[in-house]
Amino acid sequence: MKYQRILLKLSGEALMGNQPYGIDPERIQQYAQEIKRVKDTGVEVAIVIGGGNIFRGVQAQNSGMDRVQGDYMGMLATVINGMALQSALEQTGVYTRLMSGIKMEQVCEPFIRRRAIRHLEKGRIVIFGAGIGNPYFTTDSTASLRAIEIEADVVLKGTRVDGVYTADPEKDPTAKRFSTITFSEVYQKKLNVMDMTAFTLCQENNLPIIVFDMNKPGNLFNLISGQEVGTLIN
Hints:
Largest sheet: 9 strands, mixed
Number of helices: 8
CATH superfamily: Acetylglutamate kinase-like
Number of strands: 11
Strand order of the largest sheet: 4-3-5-2-1-6-10-11-9
Strand content: 15-25%
Number of domains: 1
Shape: globular
Distance between the termini: 19 Å
CATH class: Alpha Beta
Radius of gyration: 17 Å
């Protein structure tokens, strides 16, 4: 396998499937099977999942709510998604641990870096919930930071598009996909990959990012196997 330890970033919206909100059971089962297939090859897997299918902090701010309060609500939404993914993964027979940036011992462990690494070494899938425990940081920033902390080889950003394009492929049919691109080129072209905090963290720590379509069956496994899937940023 090309990578030994990965950080998989999933969007909360992807869990909706074709529903207007919430968690689509078929979609989360599909993700669990894809992740198990990779785990069974011996790759150590950590996951950060968004909460946009349940609640977004930005949406709260737009409706007049305090930004900090909205962000904390969004963090709790990521824990709900983490619990759902944990349940789906354990139904496939893999061991998991859910670790939270906010203490809630009845539900999950607090994030402790050394403990997270030990879980990975023991072959458990580790899901990081509640962001980094502070407002004003996105789940993209959480993914970058946690990946650096656990010394992951790569951040895999699973989205509904199959890579980074010159423009939004859903709006511009002439948009072209990059197979590889450098961090500085992404800055220069002002391409929307992650928020700047998350992106800069990866650049400064020489942590490559791969943006790929998580909804296409087999994509995650093919990527880990070394096939060219999505867009590599390094």
